[in-house]
Amino acid sequence: MGQENYNYIKYEGPAVAEHVMDAQKLAHSILGLNSAFKKFYSKEKGWVELKPVLRIKTNPSSYEIAAVIAALAYAADKVGLTELTKGFFSEMGKQLAIRKFAKGKELVKEGQPTVENGKMYLTIVNVYGDKNKVEATTFNNYKNFNKDIAAIVDPIEPKQIDTMKYGYKIAGHGVEDVIVEAA
Q1: Could you say which of 5, 120, 122, 147 would form a disulfide bridge with 85 (CB–CB 3.0 to 4.6 Å)?
Q2: Could you give phi then psi for residue 9, rounded to 5 degrees?
């Protein structure tokens, strides 16, 4: 995929290796990524029309969906497009991490927000009493993206799709994967 900017969702497990992954769940995960993209960029459409280009790649032991952000209609400022792309890819990683932290249950805010380095943070608590500090905007987006993220993690099942890895690359530089495993 060269030096372009992209994110990826990689599913691994026996069902993938045996080529028996549930196509309906996979289709819903692709639609979830597309829906999240549209929600995230709804306010950015004034300067350029942005569309995801989804690519699907299979290997003997994994199934990977890559989303490449394409700028259409106008010659977009490359730096601006890179920052918007990084923002979406990063936010999806944060949303997956929050969902993993929630363990399928409700999250609650604890205490007052704090400000660090110009960003507001909240402490969130899952039903097991575990605490995590997240950016307030990311937590506020959690409900908005919840159905989309649920569709992305839906294919994960014990003894079928053991693992889902999410990551992204911007100008050839990647970030560490968010890994979601079957319970």
Answers
A1: 5
A2: -125, 120
